[in-house]
Amino acid sequence: MKLFVKRLDPRVQLPAYQTPGAAAMDLAALLDAPVTIAPRQLVSIPTGLAIALPDAGWVALVFARSGLGIKHGIALSNGVGVIDSDYRGELKVGLINLSDEPYTIQPGDRIAQLMVVPVGQAAVHELEELPPTARGAGGFGSTGK
User: Fold this and answer.
1) pLDDT tens, position by position, 82-100
2) Contact in structure between 61 and 114 (CB atoms under 8 Å)
3) Which of 49, 112, 137, 138 has its CA 20 to 30 A from that of 71?
4) Residue 5: Cβ-neighbour burial (10 angstroms; 0-12, 13-18, 19+)
5) How far apart, in whole angstroms, are the C-alpha atoms of residue 115 and residue 78?
């Protein structure tokens, strides 16, 4: 599958897989100056990229970089970003600092990962009763530790 990418600024780093076995491409911060994220602060970091997925059978998902999360407490503010196939605007990454220390993002830092995956759109059918299962309505922790 082809992911079409548009640079919105000539300084943009194109998304890239860092190893042959990588499942996601790194996204880099397009910044004019460093941005310091205070503890518990939310920021939106531009990438300077716009993308085009082939059709509604594909979605791009933005995930946190594990090193930023584990080492510095930097996570995505919305958990996982969903880039729909018909979106053509700039990709921006919402970050939150979950640590007690400020963290500075430098221009060009890799800040998130972009994964392109197939998607199926479900046909919704309303029922009066759902088909039973062994688990039933058992929720959090219902199957043990």
Assistant:
1) 999 999 999 999 999 999 9
2) yes
3) 49
4) middle
5) 16
Is 85 inside any structural domain? yes
CB 66 within 8 A of CB 74: no
Q: Cα–Cα distance between 69 and 89 in angstroms, integer?
A: 26
Tokens at 17, concatenated:
């897989």
Residue 124 included in any domain: no
What is the number of structural domains in the chain? 1
Residue range 29-63, pLDDT digits in tens? 999 999 999 999 999 999 999 999 999 999 999 99
Which residue range is the domain that position 68 belongs to? 4-118
The mean per-residue pLDDT over the stretch 100-124 comes to 96
Query: Is there a domain that residue 127 lies in?
Result: no
Residue 15 — left, alpha, or beta (φ > 0 → left; ψ -120 to 50 → alpha)? beta
Burial tier of 51 (Cβ tally within 10 Å: 0-12, 13-18, 19+): buried
* SS3 state of residue 142: coil
CATH for 10: 2.70.40.10
Q: Report if pTM > 0.70.
A: yes
Q: How far apart are CA 110 and CA 50, in angstroms?
A: 17
- Asked if the structure places residue 83 within a domain, the reply is yes
